[in-house]
Amino acid sequence: xxxxxxxxxxxxxxxxxxxxxxxxxxxxxxxxxxxxxxxxxxxxxxxxxxxxxxxxxxxxxxxxxxxxxxxxxxxxxxxxxxxxxxxxxxxxxxxxxxxxxxxxxxxxxxxxxxxxxxxxxxxxxxxxxxxxxxxxxxxxxxxxxxxxxxxxxxxxxxxxxxxxxxxxxxxxxxxxxxxxxxxxxxxxxxxxxxxxxxxxxxxxxxxxxxxxxxxxxxxxxxxxxxxxxxxxxxxxxxxxxxxxxxxxxxxxxxxxxxxxxxxxxxxxxxxxxxxxxxxxxxxxxxxxxxxxxxxxxxxxxxxxxxxxxxxxxxxxxxxxxxxxxxxxxxxxxxxxxxxxxxxxxxxxxxxxxxxxxxxxxxxxxxxxxxxxxxxxxxxxxxxxxxxxxxxxxxxxxxxxxxxxxxxxxxxxxxxxxxxxxxxxxxxxxxxxxxxxxxxxxxx
Length: 443
Fold this sequence. Notes:
By secondary structure, the protein is of the alpha+beta class. The chain is 16% helix and 45% strand.
């Protein structure tokens, strides 16, 4: 009998341990789920306009404190929702409590930087948020088609191959020295100007080893390659290279100093998918001469006619970044603009619902109706923070939705410049991704 009682008690203990384990695991799982659900609700960087009272309404049960990053003597940010002016003044020199479970009104009187340490439910560490107070900005939305030509710094290696040497053996001199995505900047200390120049350097080597200065993953290093003669007695290293790219896109905005932003994404090499290392770039006047309608699973495209001559140059590209291409456009571009400057919209000001995009599928920039169906405030892929759905019947008839060549088309909502179209959703041509305008301005 005693043994039976002991066995029963032991089974009860095992059962309790099992239940506690299941309960603990469920609690952890629920906590992780809640954590992930709320993670994207507040961006890792919040931008505020200097001197303007703004409302932050994230509806997330997180709270914490906001404090200054530097020591400059500038009026600190004020949380106006839960504190009197006297309380704010007393706490300004240290930090101010903030609770995003409720609407929060804030105001910072000068350009500065702050941080917020936030906790979920006031207990679980959530994230550290950077707060940047910026000067308010007015930009002119564009929507004009542009022809793009960019030249790389050095030559880009897009592939490693092999060939038969003078003895009939297959060789690959660069196989263990160079990699796809390398930029060859110099040969034996001499700067590589372009693809033809590099080919001449190899041909002039007479089979002697060449010291190449290459840029790989952002670092410059020297490697050695020894050319070999092919069956035609030509010296080769067995690589495919590229030194330029061209295409069409859409200008997003012009600023008062004639600077511009376009595309909303960088120019990547088609073979390596890497951002091209820009040496110089040019904008050309272009005309849309054809439209291939998009459909689900088959993205369409705009076909443009570009004459690459000096008479058609309308600007200079100075930067090729993940957020787009940037540079300076000619006075005639600004003079011919169809629109007036409008304010920018910060991330937290964007609403789900009606908006418009501007593009030139018929030859002139026009507004077309879209719906903003997703706003991802803290997405890792900065070019896909917004999802828009085309609802304009005219645009759907012309293009089927978002198509290639429309990258950079301005997105406008409530009279503010929200961002730019960047990609089409291949499986649904009526939908496209967009980038926040503050990301383009912060490149």
